[in-house]
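Lecture 7 notes: from sequence to structure.

We start with a single chain of 237 residues. Read the sequence below before looking at the structure.
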Amino acid sequence: MNIHLPSIGIGVGVVIAVVVIVFFMFGQGTQKQTVSLPPIQTQGQGNATTGQASIHLLIDNTSPILGSKNAPITMIEFGDYQCFYCHQFYNSTEPDIVKNYINTGKVRMVFKDFTIIGQDSVNAAHASHCAQEQGKFWDYHDALYNNWAGENTGWASSDNLLKFAKQVGLDPNMFNQCMTQSKYISVVEGSLSNAKDLGLTGTPDFFIILPDHTVTKVVGAQPFQVFDNIFKSQLKS
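Now the structure, written as tokens:
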């Protein structure tokens, strides 16, 4: 059973990079190629964890890309919209990543649902994919975090999810129909399964695919400097 670990926040280190011998792109027409990931060592977390994971665990069931599809670095966030530390990352670190790396075409970002806190987490995640039907995933993603009010406090109720939809300019009838039909629950559940198969136990967790074909895992709501150092180590500018 996966449990939410609110203790995973700032202070947990970056893990070492692991070799991945494949290029991949997100988007329609993506050819999924399976590779093995070597053991991953997490600083401050004890011994290396071993296991075989395939690249589809990272690239299936994602959000649309935020940023340029041609960006040389891909950052994958596994998050839960109710998570305290995910909210902290969104407010304290993500704006600087967006400003310095995503808006400048150096990094592209995708979000994967790791819904481990409660049913409202599942509902909020599903709502974000319903928003994507109208091309507003990231607007809705932002609205969820901007309206965050704690874990299991009811702020992500059905009524509030509809209110957020209206706030970002969604057609409420289309949104309601999507929610009622649970059209994207398989995406949410698939992403949760991917996270479990990767051995994740808390949110947020990040996998950064670098231009030299390595993957670096970052655990927790690390400050901007941690991500900045990783990006700068691979970029020429």
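The first strand starts at residue 18 and ends at 19. Keep this in mind for problem set 3.
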